[in-house]
């Protein structure tokens, strides 16, 4: 009897499918994934794949973005429960209300948002390119949503731009407090602190490096330092420990886990491929408008 990994690999070949996995996923999914990385990397892979089926081991907005980029392909999310709590903090009506309070200002949406929200924004961004995207607009003021902390962090990196943010946030990253950084530094005085920009500004202000999930992994790989305190979701620490055995990685505090990212199991990936479930669909008009917002980001990020 073949094991589940062999079965998945056979189905991938038979059906010309590709598996994209975010680096917060359960680590065993990497064994069957074709590409593992941050939101930007995965959307770039989704934009250029030749596969007929895309299985997205990530959260709903990631699979939805892949579908918008590939309207004629089948995009599958193995567990429909995998939503993003931050993306759900702003809906279409709330966006229109926010925009009406600040008329005629360019609007940047974090990729962690729904297709409806993207359809009414000027350009999208991820945590790895937020600064570049804000700069690309050449505006004195921009609106940024839904993540207030990423927006405020980007504002600090770009001189002369006022960033007005929507009050959304990531509950997982907000569990990390400045006291946790201070405590971890006391315990590991030689360690470098690497933080995700979704963290509160009191946390990013204390970090040695702030970047996306892939940015954090690249920094740790290239650094000559040997010990790192990681202020983001545990999946990043799991992968760093697996890949860089000569270095030490400490999760800043216990249970920095995004429960929604952890739904997918290897068995769910198998079921997704075998039964072609659960298929993501996006209304055509919304998808066309959202595509403009996503394509602008991909163009700036080339
Ligand atoms: P990245 O863009 O770093 O992959 O982050 C996505 C995300 O949801 C972080 O919480
Ligand atoms: Fe959304 Fe936060 Fe989970 Fe990222 S970690 S998917 S922002 S809830």
Structural features, described:
The protein has 302 residues and is of the alpha/beta class. Helices cover 41% and strands 16% of the residues. The chain is built from 13 helices and twelve strands. The strands form three sheets. The protein has a four-stranded parallel sheet with strand order 2-1-3-4, sandwiched between helices. The chain has a four-stranded parallel sheet with strand order 6-5-7-8. Strand 5 (107-110), helix 5 and strand 6 (123-125) form a beta-alpha-beta unit. Helix 1 (4-15) runs parallel beside helix 12 (266-275). Bound molecules: 1,3-dihydroxyacetonephosphate and iron/sulfur cluster. Residues 59, 84-86, 112, 170, 172, 198, 233, 258, 260-261 line the site of iron/sulfur cluster.
């Amino acid at each position: 009897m073949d094991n589940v990994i062999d079965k998945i690999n056979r189905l991938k070949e038979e059906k010309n499918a590709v598996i994209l996995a975010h680096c917060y996923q359960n680590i065993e999914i990497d064994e069957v994934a074709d590409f593992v990385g941050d939101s930007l990397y995965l959307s770039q892979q989704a934009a250029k794949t030749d596969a007929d089926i895309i299985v997205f081991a990530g959260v709903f907005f990631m699979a939805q973005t892949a579908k918008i980029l590939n309207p004629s392909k089948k995009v599958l999310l193995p567990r429909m429960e995998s939503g993003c709590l931050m993306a759900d903090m702003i809906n279409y009506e709330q966006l229109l209300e926010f925009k009406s309070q600040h008329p005629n200002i360019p609007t940047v949406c974090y990729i962690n948002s729904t297709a409806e929200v993207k359809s009414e924004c000027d350009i999208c961004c991820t945590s790895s390119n937020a600064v570049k995207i804000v700069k690309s607009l050449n505006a004195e003021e921009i609106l940024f949503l839904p993540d207030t902390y990423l927006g405020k962090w980007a504002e600090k990196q770009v001189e002369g731009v006022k960033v007005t943010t929507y009050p959304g946030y990531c509950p997982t990253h907000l569990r990390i407090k400045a006291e946790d950084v201070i405590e971890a530094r006391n315990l590991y005085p030689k360690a470098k602190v690497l933080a995700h920009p979704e963290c509160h500004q009191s946390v990013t202000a204390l970090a040695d490096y702030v970047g996306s999930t892939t940015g954090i992994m690249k920094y740790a790989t290239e650094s000559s330092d040997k010990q790192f305190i990681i202020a983001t979701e545990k999946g990043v620490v799991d992968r760093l420990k697996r890949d860089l055995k000569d270095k030490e990685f400490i999760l800043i505090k216990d249970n920095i886990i995004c429960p929604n990212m952890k739904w997918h199991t290897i068995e769910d990936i198998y079921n997704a491929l075998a039964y072609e479930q659960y298929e993501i669909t996006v209304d055509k008009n919304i998808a066309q408008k959202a595509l403009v917002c996503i394509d602008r980001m991909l163009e700036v990020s080339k």
